[in-house]
Each structure stands twice: as structure tokens, then as C-alpha cells.
Amino acid sequence: MEAQRVKKHTCGTICLKYLLFLFNILFWLAGGAVLAVGVWTMVEKSDYISLLNSGFYATSAYILIAAGVIVIVTGIIGCCATLNEMKSLLIVYLILLFCIFLLEIIAGVLAYINYQECFPFCYQLDEELKQNLKVTMQQKYQQPGEESITQAVDKLHQEFKCCGSHNFSDWSDSVWIQAAENERLVPDSCCKTPSELCGRRDHPSNIYKMEGGCIMKLEEFILSHLYILGAVGIGIAFLQLLGMMFTCCLYQNLKEELY
After folding, report:
1. Residue 191, SS3?
2. How does pLDDT run across 169-219, given as a tens digit for each residue?
3. Which are the contacts of 258, defined by CB distance < 8 A and separation ≥ 6?
4. What is d(CA 57, CA 254) in angstroms, rounded to the nearest whole number?
5. Measuring CA to CA, how many Å separate 249 from each of 166, 243, 254?
6. Mean pLDDT computed over 24-37
7. Which of 38, 57, 66, 136 is 20 to 30 A from 230, comparing alpha carbons?
């Protein structure tokens, strides 16, 4: 009877080891996805986020990057603990899983609390855009030391086919446009076919005059991207609950086999 009991526990332990090993493979893939989303946000889309004069939206991406890096180390620890049946290392692995779980939940919540339709009070993104984007464009475009802002605005105009924060007339109050030597009415990047000094004409046939201006397009982009960050972070975090369950079960089985 005792031999049968030991055999049952041994089979259960082997099954849990394979399940936990399979989870680690999925965990690495998920961690790679988290890391990729965070890096993609900072490398490809940080120009637009910089226009908001706020580091809040970059915080979610930094948290995801940190979680992705920790996942690599955690996955190695998990494999070693599982294959060698080391209970102390399993506890370390469980703690790391829980920490990453919290990191990704925090990243997801940070993203969702700024999603405009998440709760009745979530209008922070819209207000921040309205307050900062117009001032940033008017005060910093083509100014010394603000090359990154200039490039971001030019990229914004061309990618979203818009001109100005709310409309093209916002540029009339621009420090750069008001300069005596400037002949332009709008930046050349507002033109449908950009060329040197094409911004001297603000006719609809020459420049983008989309209703709502760039603020509407940028708001849609940021909100949709925050939605992606939140979905990835929270989705993968719940996957880790399975890993914590398997780890607890394996630890319990190893503990029981000692008696």
C-alpha cells in the first residue's frame, strides 16, 4: 500500500514537472512578447509621447521592459528548479513569478486608467493633450535644442495627414512662424507634397486641413496604444497564475515524498 502511494506521488510529480517545463516555454515566449511591446513603444512611438510633455505614458512601457528582462532570468531559475526538484529554488521561482505578476498588473492598470472610456473620470489623456500639444508646437517647433520636438511634429503631420494641434491656424501664433525672416504660414510638413517653402500657401489643395487637427488623431493613437499595453500586460499576468499554481503543487508533492 505504501509503495503504491509513493508511486502515485512520483507519477504526479513527473506530470507536474512536464507541465511546469511546458509553462516555462510559454512563459519565455510571453516574456518576449512583453519585452517586444515595451521596446517597440519606446523606440518607434516615443516621439509622439514626447509631445505630451509627460512621462506617465512611458512608465507603462518601462515597466513592461523590466518585466520582460526579469522573465528571462526567472525562466532559467524555473527550469533549474523543476528539472533538479529543488524546493528552495521553487520558492524563489514562485516569488519571482508573483513579483512579475504584480509588475504587469500595475502596467496594465496604469494604461487603462488613462483610457478615455474606462471609467467616468478617465479624461486625463484628453485634457493633457489639449493643454500641452498646442503650446509645445507653438513654442518649441524649429527652436534651438528642440530638434526632437521638430522631428516629432513633422512626422505627426505626415503620418496622420493633419496640420496644427486643432487646425492649421494654430501656427499663426507660433514663435517660428512669427519670425521676421520666415515666409511660411505653416510648416512644410503640413503640405500634401512636402517641398522647400511649400508652407507659404495654406490653400486646402496644398496643405492638410483635416477637421479636429492633429490632436484628434494623436489622441486616437495614444488611447489605442494604451489599450494594447494594458491588454498585453494583464493578459500575460493571468497566464502566470497557472505557473504559480503548478509551482505550488510541485512543491507540495516533493514535500510529501520525503515522508
Report:
1. strand
2. 889 889 998 875 778 899 999 999 988 889 888 888 899 887 778 888 877
3. none
4. 44
5. 57, 10, 9
6. 78
7. 136
Assigned C-alpha cell, 28: 519565455
Distances in Å between the Cα of 177 and the Cα atoms of 26, 68, 156, 184 are 54, 44, 18, 6
Per DSSP, 131 falls in state H
Indicate the helix (H) or strand (E) that contains 85: none
53, three cell numbers: 510633455
Nearest to 17 by CA among 67, 65, 73, 87: 87
Which triple of cell numbers denotes residue 88? Answer: 528552495
Rounded CA-CA distance 101/134 in Å is 38
71 within 8 A of 31, measured Cβ to Cβ: yes
202-221 burial, b for 16+ CB within 10 Å, e for fewer?
A: beeebbbbbeebbbbbbbeb
First CA to last CA across the chain, in angstroms?
14
Backbone angles phi, psi at 13, to 5 degrees: -65, -45
Q: Is 119 helix (H, G, I), strand (E, B) or coil?
A: coil
Residue 91 C-alpha cell reads as 520558492
- pTM of the entire structure? 0.64
C-alpha cell at 195: 517641398
At 92 the three-state DSSP class reads helix
